[in-house]
Specification:
Two copies of one chain form a homodimer.
Chain A (H helix, E strand, L loop, with lengths): L2 E5 L2 H13 L5 E5 L5 E3 L2 E3 L1 H10 L17 H8 L10 H15 L4 H11 L5 E4 L6 E6 L2 E4 H7 L8 E5 L10 H7 L2 E4 L4 H9 L2 H8 L5 E4 L2 E2 L2 E2 L4 H9 L4 H6 L7 E5 L12 E5 L6 H15 L1
Parallel strand pairs in A: 1-2, 1-9, 2-5, 9-10, 10-13, 13-14
Antiparallel strand pairs in A: 3-4, 6-7, 6-8, 11-12
Chain lengths: 305, 305
């Protein structure tokens, strides 16, 4: 059965690795977030697509959660010597991919075509697609004013509270080739345990993708990124508290209103699921290695069958 | 006294390091060749400017003659994995500079401004200028047809014989800001021991630079890149043999007809200087360390005084 997963980086990527272990990877299509794409040192960086690609190719740094394993930072050290920007950490191995992608984009190749080729060359059998080939950029509204996503997330270490998010270019953005076809052919759609606001919403901000989920005839199952009321990593809990009023399963589910049929939550959050108007699947969602990633993926698949 | 040197990479860069050791570097301006500039992996690479900058900043690999000392190649290995071009070797440290320069050029900064800033940030006190900010590219005519410089030099390892050289864009190219002023203010102009055809001619192909040398009121002294009839490195001897008919001091001097007042040649070539219609200075020109670089620079300065 063919599966489509919507995902951001880090936690989502980790989950996808488990999912690709328990299904035929050739039947899995991942639609990755591009709202946090950024130009660094003149290179087009797609942090979420890269985290997914690296995770699926077993090339990623599992500890750090982003970038390449066994990484070095010599180019960046020299860029610093020569006055270049260093706020966004690009490792030497990582740069190899960014150089190839940037060159391909400059030649007019769409991001989706580049991404598919890069993934194939890394030995990834899962189909990896960006949500859109067009420019779509996440902005966060903060007490300090609107901030471009990476200015907030990396440069300011997501210290500013977030009052809202918006997605520049989303109105005009069309899904990348293959995205709608994959959604239509899917027997199951999974939303990975990613930050709803800044990892999944920018995917859903592409109207045709959102509409495809809204009119679904197959189950859409979201995995909560919250464990015991807290984000495993990143600002999801702070954002949920400020923008939704809390970090319970209901607050997470509220981010996907009308778009999901079930929510997979951690055992630690099982006490707060009463009154939720959708199916709740309780399991261990913390992923700390191959076995737990697979178990979570299996729990998601079982909940759909 | 202010000195201007015209130079390519490797041998020229090595000589300049000696020259900067024996004069006040603040009084030295180097006009570097850009005919071998090339786009690699989407980056603007200026091999000769970089060899000069790295040599003057003591950052270069002296053994190899180009690129950075203590270099690694991890980004390039990954670019290869992802299908990127690897024919032109860009090391990790080297990439730091190319990234910063490419980004600056993309923002509209002229090459001369970028180059001066990069050199300053590397601690270089010599003024380093490209011959021109405009696009000027060396092509070689070979039995296999015309080849872009780096296609011939790097990709084909300069195996093809060369019947001629031409400099795309030279007709329109204006000297970079500061170049003519430096030439006019100079008390001495030196042509470094670089390949005449592919390192110095592309500089002289900028008409205003050539004219400034032709109407000089101060000595212009060229250092031959030939030792004992052979090039220390690279194809200069083969090119001289095929295009000028030999590798004697007269053949080297013929490359600069009407533009130089003296030629510095190696002791090994001293037997072949009879009948030369310009001053010949005989010394040891082989540079194998700081001391010999300095001695050669001092010999050049003495010959001008």
């Amino acid at each position: 059965m063919s599966i489509v997963a919507l995902s951001g980086g880090v936690g989502g990527a980790r989950f996808l690795r488990g999912l690709a272990d328990v299904v035929d990877p050739a039947e899995l299509t991942v639609i990755g977030n591009v709202g946090d794409d950024v130009e660094v040192l003149g290179l087009h960086v797609s942090p979420d697509l890269d985290s997914i690609l690296y995770a699926l190719a077993a090339l990623g740094d599992e500890e750090r959660g982003w970038g390449r394993a066994d990484e070095t930072w010599r180019a960046l050290e020299e860029a610093e010597r020569f006055g270049g920007e260093t706020w966004f950490r690009l490792g030497d191995r990582d740069l190899g991919l960014h150089l190839v992608r940037t060159q391909a984009l400059a030649r007019g190749e769409p991001l989706s075509a580049v991404t598919e080729r890069l993934a194939r060359l890394a030995g990834v059998r899962v189909r990896l697609l960006p949500s859109t080939d067009e420019r779509l950029r996440t902005w966060v509204e903060t007490p300090a004013g609107p901030l471009a996503f990476q200015d907030w997330f990396v440069a300011r270490r997501h210290a500013d509270d977030v009052d809202g998010v918006r997605f520049e270019g989303a109105e005009q953005a069309r899904p990348a080739p293959g995205v709608l076809e994959a959604l239509e052919a899917a027997r199951l759609i999974v939303i990975a345990p990613s930050n709803p606001y800044i990892s999944v919403w920018p995917i859903l901000a592409v109207r045709a993708i959102r509409e495809a989920l809204a009119r679904r005839s197959v189950p859409v199952i979201a995995v909560s990124p919250i464990v015991g009321g807290r984000a495993v990593k990143g600002p999801a809990d702070r954002m949920l508290t400020r923008m939704a009023g809390g970090t319970s399963p209901a607050h997470v589910a509220g981010c996907y209103e009308g778009l999901i049929d079930a929510l997979v939550v951690d055992e630690a959050d099982a006490g707060a699921v009463d009154g939720l108007a959708l199916r709740v699947v309780v399991t261990k969602t913390l992923m700390v290695g191959d076995a737990s990633r697979r178990r979570l993926a299996e729990a998601v698949l079982e909940s759909a069958s």
